[in-house]
């Protein structure tokens, strides 16, 4: 496959950055998108040019590191995949592909296509955990019976890998889907219910402080989420939040 | 205990938008019902309008609440839109919004702005003259004037066209707003599918009904 790549190049966080056009040849349809970028970077290095910086880690769709806004969509045109699971067969020979970093005030660009998503970490630190004594007498979680339906819904929420596609794709840069998945994961389980009120209030407060936008229920996040996290989680978080706020 | 953000958090704002929106949709439904009467019977329309225009509870309690609701919904809508734009200071070179969300859901600020412009015209046409008639000139109550005042406004093809165009945008606003309100107040459950279907019908039937009323009076004058 022969392709034209339009890639966002930005030297560092202070640089203004710009889109740069490149040509690339010899791409196999069965390559993953990241493998295509590996080939591209090899071409850049061989030509004595600066390779493009992009995030990646596990390359099997579970770490959430690979980001990229490809042809106007988070993780590209495929559904239910991260960028490492996106294959070049989704594109045609001769296509022009636009590759940009995830855009949000809360996800500042570090270099080229790499963004700083530590705002998600700070939201997690604000309440995305349960407080358990781990000094040696920890009670096995399995000793507490959990309704199957709740356990399944909690597990579904827990599959969120914190990639940030929800923020990147939302026209408002809202982080509601991510935060609601973390809130739901614990709110549905007895182990998490003890701190449920504090958790939702603290996590939403941190989310707002990080500068994410407001949710307007377009549903784009649910469509683009590689793990299929449902909007039901946002409704649950809204209920949890209002209930916790009214209780004071 | 963590501090409540009931007044300024992003969730509180969306719940407030949803509740004010639901309230306005309720108002819209009764407005639709009353106006539809004008197509079937001038007398019935006149007597309901007279009741609405002279009942103290409606005039001095419900009407101010409605105005506060309208003003709040618009101001909050613009505030949220400004905040949301700030949340992405550098935009995308390529953004395929249609790939994952409807036009109506992505452009509530546009449909809302058209509705706001329509309301300015609507207030100029009906509400301000009504206030002047009753509370400034202190004219005597006339139970027969309402149908005539309504029909008179739709003689103009420009006004009839502007009203009809606004109702199309109202339809798009309701198309997203109805189901979105329930999601915002935390209702996403086994009733959601039925509620979305009802919302779809509501967003078509009510604005279309208003268009029919405008055209009816335009062509029957």
From TrEMBL, chain A:
InterPro entries: 2Fe-2S_ferredoxin-like_sf (IPR036010), 2Fe2S_fd_BS (IPR006058), 4Fe4S_Fe-S-bd (IPR017896), Beta-grasp_dom_sf (IPR012675), Helical_ferredxn (IPR009051), SDH/FRD_Iron-Sulfur (IPR050573), Succ_DH/fum_Rdtase_N (IPR025192). Residues 151-181 form the 4Fe-4S ferredoxin-type domain. Its cofactor is [2Fe-2S] cluster; [3Fe-4S] cluster. SUPFAM superfamilies: 2Fe-2S ferredoxin-like, alpha-helical ferredoxin. Pfam families: Fer2_3, Fer4_8. PANTHER family: SUCCINATE DEHYDROGENASE (PTHR11921:SF41), SUCCINATE DEHYDROGENASE IRON-SULFUR PROTEIN (PTHR11921). Belongs to the succinate dehydrogenase/fumarate reductase iron-sulfur protein family. This is Succinate dehydrogenase/fumarate reductase iron-sulfur subunit.
UniProtKB/TrEMBL annotation, chain B:
The chain crosses the membrane at residues 57-82, 103-124, 160-178, 198-219. Keywords: Membrane, Transmembrane, Transmembrane helix. The keyword Transmembrane applies. NCBIfam families: sdhC_b558_fam. This is Succinate dehydrogenase. It comes from Flavobacterium pokkalii.
